């Protein structure tokens, strides 16, 4: 695995961010190489960096850049969550009562929008 991807994984494990001086220790690389990795990730917009102090030493707090919140809107039909999300049944969709009930609950305008996008 490329060192940048490993760094992203390590930074992502720390929800509140990770100090740069901690990151190079966790990656088992020297601080100079860590600085180059961070520079690349910053340039690519994959992380953010802010000044911080850790145990009296100046460092940077690194975080994953703008994590997008998952959008579950397409899995909802009114108040019903799609029965297929996480379903482990080996059913045929044409005969699934739970799926049929969910589809029948879809607002008509959403169905027309979805049909239009499929035919385009």
List keywords for this structure.
120 residues; alpha+beta; 2 domains; TFIIIC_Bblock-bd; WH-like_DNA-bd_sf; 3-stranded antiparallel β-sheet; B-block binding subunit of TFIIIC; single chain; Arc Repressor Mutant, subunit A; 5 helices
The appropriate CATH architecture of the largest domain is Orthogonal Bundle
What sort of overall outline do the alpha carbons produce when their principal axes are compared? elongated
Give the distance, in angstroms, between the N- and C-terminal Cα atoms. Answer: 40 Å
The arrangement of helices and strands along the chain is HEHHEEEEHH
What is the name of the CATH superfamily of the largest domain? Winged helix-like DNA-binding domain superfamily/Winged helix DNA-binding domain
- The average pLDDT score comes to 82
| Rg, alpha carbons | 23 Å
CATH fold group of the largest domain: Arc Repressor Mutant, subunit A
Content of β-strand:
15-25%
Output the number of helix runs: 5
